[in-house]
Specification:
Layout lengths: L24 E6 L2 E3 L1 E8 L2 E6 L9 E7 L2 E14 L9 E7 L4 H11 L3
Organism: Thalassomonas actiniarum
Protein name: PilZ domain-containing protein
């Protein structure tokens, strides 16, 4: 049975692809468990596309934590779509579309601004 893929987050805002990794530490977590984060593909204030070391289940609480010597914040979201990276057979890497929790817009916008190359 084919999984239904929801791409609605992709259409809510212009997707920015000119992404830089900031000073400090970014941590991806699935249900409070660290997961290797490989790269960001694009981002909006409403969500992000990123590559992770493993797939997420639909009920997974996804957290992106930013820690820097001047402060920290967290962004929460849920997986709205995912697909495996087709690099090799045994690779578990997955692209994930994550929709941010809308009630934390200040943190969502902070992550968006943090990752953009100005």
């Amino acid at each position: 049975m084919d999984e239904i893929v929801d791409h609605s987050e992709r259409r809510r805002a212009i997707r920015e692809t000119n992404i830089k990794l900031p000073e400090g530490e970014l941590t991806l977590m699935f249900d409070d468990r660290p997961v290797k984060l490989y790269e960001f593909k694009d981002i909006t204030p409403f969500g992000v596309c990123l590559q992770a070391a493993e797939p997420a289940s639909p009920s997974t609480v996804i957290t992106i934590r930013y820690l820097h010597r001047h402060g920290q914040f967290e962004v929460f979201g849920e997986m709205v779509w995912q697909e495996p990276v087709l690099a090799c057979v045994n690779d578990q890497k997955h692209w994930l579309g994550i929709q941010f929790t809308p009630d934390r817009i200040t943190q969502n916008e902070a992550l968006f601004e943090l990752l953009l190359v100005h």
